[in-house]
Amino acid sequence: MKLGMYGLGRMGGNMAIRLARHGHEVVLLNRTRSKSEEIHNQAPKSTIADDLKSLVEALPSPKIVWIMLPCGEVTEQAIKSLGDMLNKGDIVIDGGNTFYKDDIRRAKMLEAKGIHYVDVGTSGGVWGLERGYCMMYGGSKEAVDHIDPILDSLAPGMGDIPRTKGRNANLNPRAEKGYLHCGPAGSGHFVKMVHNGIEYGMMQAYAEGFDIMRTKGSDRLPEDERFDLNMADIAEVWRRGSVIPSWLLDLCADALAKDGTLAGFKGDVADTGEGRWTIEAAIEEAVPAPVITSALFTRFRSRSGNTFGEKMLSAMRFGFGGHVEKK
User: Fold this and answer.
1) Which of 63, 177, 199, 310 is catalytic?
2) pLDDT per position as a tens digit, 39-61
3) What DSSP element (H or E) covers 121?
């Protein structure tokens, strides 16, 4: 299939390359042309557009434009512009970390013009190019069925993960391949939002655990109760047969193997919005979410003084998403 990819940052660029490697034709657009040229050199059959208008003109009907821009005003303006350029039956896809209520509003705005809107919650970080992307998406069945070959190419596929026992024919087979139509517009980003909230809690638990173990050698403790524990070896042994393995633990092990003190990280841990939105949804639904809430507040506190645990959080964020601490 042929589509436009607008926004070629850490995620968008790699997604464009993965799609091109799977035989799709991708029209590339980025704020800086040099980035488009960098991706073009790695993406067979890709072409470069100089602006949004030329990107749209390069696409066949129904036109498919995938946006991978930062959430907020830049995405808002792009979608408004596309609403003026596209025609009935065309499809706009937002794959960034957009607030789901904005998706619902934008979908209604485009629907009035006959344009489909699909929101895709995308997980996979900087590793997605090779591993594939887990995607949770919302929109009309007509639109998501049309773009299924694109989503299938981006998804990780079955891989070597054991199949879940008890899954029956009534469950969506695409979920086993790493992508899922969650419902109407907004539902994809809502599920991804909660995914990121859970991620906050899991990361915080690992960070606190490693901090407790590292501090066991403190001179504030009785001498016979002090342990000089090797964090890198503990992370590694937990990866082998324990009940708490995960990709996040793999990233902990990677970071600690390189430097057991994590001296390259300050521990100033940012939050990109999804944790806050998850807590807001929990409040609206009167659902208790103490772990996610506490994890978010700890990120706030990290910016006024850091612990080893917060360095561990920074190391995990850098590992999966290439997130660099703000100076």
Assistant:
1) 199
2) 999 998 899 999 999 999 999 99
3) strand 116-123
